[in-house]
Amino acid sequence: MKLGDIQQNPRNLINGRWETGPTTGVSTNPSDTREVVAEYSRADRSQTEQAVRAAADAFPHWSQSTPQRRADVLDCVGSELLARKDELGALLAREEGKTLPEAVAEVARSGQIFKFFAGEALRIQGELMASVRQGVQVDVTREPVGVVGIIAPWNFPFAIPAWKIAPALAYGNTVVFKPAELVPACGWALAEIISRCGLPAGVFNLVMGSGREVGQTLVDHPLVHAISFTGSVSTGDRILRAGTARRAKVQLEMGGKNPLIVLADADLDQAVECALQGSYFSTGQRCTASSRLIVESGIHDAFVGKLRDRLIQLRVGHALDRTTEMGPVVDGHQLEQNLGYVEIARGEGAEHVWGGEQLERSTPGHYMSPALFLAQPDYRIAREEIFGPVACVLRAADYEHALALANDTPFGLCAGICTTSLKRAMHFKRHAAVGMTMVNLPTAGVDFHVPFGGRKESSYGAREQGRYAAEFYTTVKTGYMLA
Ligand code: NAD
């Protein structure tokens, strides 16, 4: 199917058939709001239930399929994503608003994730143990969990579904996937590729629609054995309560308020690039974005001055324009929220360094300039996740003060440090209360073959990605045998 067909009413995939839903939704281009990207069919509660039943019916057969068969399916999906990365990247840039290079790289990453889990399907391991009893043999084997409900956010519409769907299928589970409402065309394009790679009907299902109806149905359905969710803390909390109340397995990846410490001994240019990349690329719409820049007094003014110079030059514009460095905000609601935080920052007495204004471009879109403030640690812009191109600088007296500020947050996803001191870097890696640390690198930007996730309010349950994905997508069985 050609991408042009995406505008022609993308439908839901239920039990191997493309099904029209009772209502239609629309996604628009945040770089040019006159452009409709997709008019898509929204599934309702009853279609979601049909998808869950189809996945449950398909499970016994698929869970017994050979690793080679599963590897072949995932390899096929990965190959097509890689071959079509430019075309699908353009779709992603149009629907979500990240720049074309960022979008193409995300599609390529998604292809690599499917390829990685194609290999993992062939490497499922168990353990053979000596028993404490004479003549008894013990083994520990991994088995799939069952039907997995996958609920995704809008900010990485290919990569996040990829790092959930690929391991789910690799380990023999069946899937019902719900993309975010702002990015149905991306979710559909991924599903359409998966649908042509040799899966039996019902193994993989797509249901597009609202969180309250489609998402909640997945969370509450007794035949859904595991729920993997990425999104906001408030939605995650609701899913956790409902899912665990009926003893489903739940995995949550949620927000962040990630610190980047800049010590006086840092390479200034490198630190400024880390801050610029981590705070503002992808329009700051990354859970790993560096939204708190904690800067030691000795380098504070030079760092702020240089970052301001870079922000003044940063080209904000249409996501498909090759000269654009920062695309638009995803939608009007998010833009309003970002601008609201700019007002809150001013109201709290934060010192304005640069930006935070709505911008006009040649096409009508949700554009704003990247915002930088000098703040105090108790200001709301220093404590709450904004999920936009709004960062603040906190002044630290020394390294110990900077580390205390970095850990003084309810979140715990990622933390970075820019320093030339190996001693400080090692201490920081050990004492940052997060799931991921970065030294002389932006807080955003991770590998796909190692665990991803955080602590405190940022995450719940087993880590995602890499070999560690098996912790969530499999359950272990212990076998005893008299030898
Ligand atoms: P969101 O929580 O509003 O929505 C996420 C998904 O949950 C969507 O598909 C939505 O339709 C669905 N949903 C909403 N209500 C539901 C309900 N009651 N039951 C079941 N599903 C429901 O988040 P968003 O606005 O799409 O994404 C932005 C948020 O995601 C930010 O807070 C960001 O930090 C977070 N995020 C976290 C990570 C991470 O890995 N930690 C990655 C990306 C985004």
Description:
The chain has 483 residues and is α/β, with parallel strands linked by helices. The protein folds into 2 domains: 3-254 and 458-482, Aldehyde Dehydrogenase, Chain A, domain 1; 259-439, Aldehyde Dehydrogenase, Chain A, domain 2. Helices cover 40% and strands 24% of the residues. It is built from 15 helices and 24 strands. The chain has helices at 45-63, 67-83, 85-96, 100-121, 159-170, 184-195, 211-220, 233-245, 268-280, 297-313, 332-348, 380-383, 399-407, 422-431, 470-473, and strands at 12-14, 17-19, 23-29, 32-42, 127-130, 136-144, 147-151, 174-178, 204-206, 226-230, 249-253, 258-262, 290-296, 351-354, 358-359, 367-368, 371-374, 390-396, 411-412, 414-418, 436-439, 455-456, 459-460, 474-482. It has a 7-stranded mixed beta sheet with strand order 14-17-18-13-12-20-21, sandwiched between helices. The protein has a 6-stranded mixed beta sheet with strand order 9-8-7-10-11-23, with helices on both faces. It has a 3-stranded antiparallel beta sheet with strand order 5-6-24. Helix 1 packs across helix 7 (211-220). It starts with 11 loop residues before the first strand and ends with a strand. The site of nicotinamide-adenine-dinucleotide has 28 residues, from helix 7 and helix 8.
Give me the oligomer status: single chain
Percent of residues in beta strands?
Answer: 15-25%
What radius of gyration results from the CA coordinates? 23 Å
The count of DSSP E runs of length 2 or more, i.e. the number of strands, is: 24
Report the uncertain regions: none
Overall CATH class of the largest domain: Alpha Beta
| CATH fold topology of the largest domain | Aldehyde Dehydrogenase, Chain A, domain 1
